[in-house]
Amino acid sequence: MNKVNYIALTLCLTACSVFSQTIITDRPDQTESSSTIEAGSLQIETGILLGFSEDDFSSERQLLAPTTLFRYGITNGIELRVLSQFESLKDQNSTQKVSGISDLEIGTKIQLFKKETVNTEIAFLSHLILPTGSTGLTNNRFGTINKLSISHTLSDALGLGYNVGYDYFGEGSGNLTYSVALGVSVTETLGIYIEPYGNFVEFNTHEASFDAGIAYLLKDNCQLDFSFGTGINHTMNYLSLGCSIQIAKDNSNK
Prior knowledge:
It is built from no helices and 13 strands. It is mostly beta strands.
């Protein structure tokens, strides 16, 4: 693998060589990587998340167990993506609880810019949200999630990545989103990141959040992660554990 600091930014932010791992993940941070996986390879990124949110109208506990992203390399610059998750929501103010499958997401990531001599990478990601979820969890409408992902190598142990995006859920004006992740490689197998992120709901209300986490390279093609997040100007917090594995293309017949 010819990337640097991907372990520090959950293997997703920069573009030089420091580690020998082959896996580059899009979890656990909110910032999507600016890289695509190798053509013919399959990557599975899965985890569990326990979250809590509260506003003037509700107090809700969320469990995602598991949430799974499948990534398949169509070419070396384009990947196919499928996201599916089992979700459980419980209203803390009542006994109401809803469990089932969330709306399915199908999408792609396209790498727009990458050069070995330049410390910047750029990619575009788009997901189509299909109203296939269980009753009480589906939006009953088609939607879309879109992000422009940019990353920079700052040094051999430091990387910066950021996303700007637009989400639309079938009604209203949609949300503008952003995230900025700074990652540091602590050792050859351990990295940490910090990340402010948020969105402008309906182009109006700003919800600002912050998260941080660690990524541990168990094997060249397997990564473990832990992360936590909290709301800055709203009540929200979560904990997440995850594992990602890459099944690389078989080149033995070449």
